[in-house]
C-alpha cells in the first residue's frame, strides 16, 4: 500500500506527494512554497534523513516511521497559525485511536504513574505520548513569501516501527506497543482527522472548541510540573491552557503564571529537574 489521502481530504482540495526518502519534509515544503505552490500539500516519507524538532533538536525517522508535513499558504494572520500545532496534535491522536483500536495504553507522563486512563495523550505544546514516552513530535515553521504572504509547514513525525535510544526523555514506537499498523495506514487516518479538526478550528474562530478537546487529552493535567523557561525553572501544578493555548501553572502560593514556550516536565521528573 502506498501513501494516499482520505476521500474527505481529496474533497477538500488536499494533495499528497510521497518520497522513498527525504532530507526534511518541512524544508521541502517551504521550498515548494517559495517556488509558488499554493498549499494544501502533504509531503510524506517513511525515511527522513535530516529532520529536526523544536529548538533545532534532531528528530530521527528511520525506515518505516512516518515523516509528514502539511504545507499551507494561508490568508489568516501568522499569529493565528501558531495554534495549528494543537490542531495537529488532536488530529494525530484521533488518527492513532482509529488505527490502534482498543489498544491498552498505560499512559504516564515522564515515566511516572499513569494519569490518562489508557489513551494516547497530548503533552504541551506539541508531543504525543504513549506509555509515558514520546511517540510523536510536531514542529511548525514559517517563511515569508512577499506581499505580506507567508507559508506554513506543519511537520509531524511519528515513531511507527522504531524509536531513538539515548535521548534525555523516554521514547516509544507503535511497534513496541504491539500495534501492527504501518506508516501509510496511519497517514490515511491522519489526513482524514486533519480535515475534521481544521474545520472545527475554522481559521482560529473555533480555537476555544479545539482548546477544550485538547484539554480532554492533556497529559499531566492537575499534576506537579516544572517548566524550563529562559534558563530558569517554574514549578507548580499544571492547571489548564488559557484562551491563547498558553501553559498555565499555579504556584504554591496560588499565583498563576501563563507560559508561551518552554520545556515541560511532570511528576517525579518535575521534582528532580533543576
The structural domain count equals 2
Parts with pLDDT < 50 across at least 5 consecutive residues: 111-117
Any idea what the radius of gyration is? 18 Å
Name the overall outline: globular
Instruction: Kindly estimate the percentage of residues that lie in beta strands according to DSSP.
Output: 25-35%
Q: Would you tell me the overall average pLDDT? A: 88
Count of DSSP-assigned helices = 7
CATH H level of the largest domain: which superfamily?
Bira Bifunctional Protein, Domain 2
Q: Tell me the name of the CATH class of the largest domain.
A: Alpha Beta
Distance between the termini: 47 Å
Q: Architecture of the largest domain, according to CATH?
A: 2-Layer Sandwich
**How would you name the oligomeric state of the polypeptide chains in this document?**
single chain
Main sheet strand line-up: 1-2-3-7-6-5-4
The CATH topology assignment of the largest domain is: BirA Bifunctional Protein, domain 2
Major sheet description: 7 strands, mixed
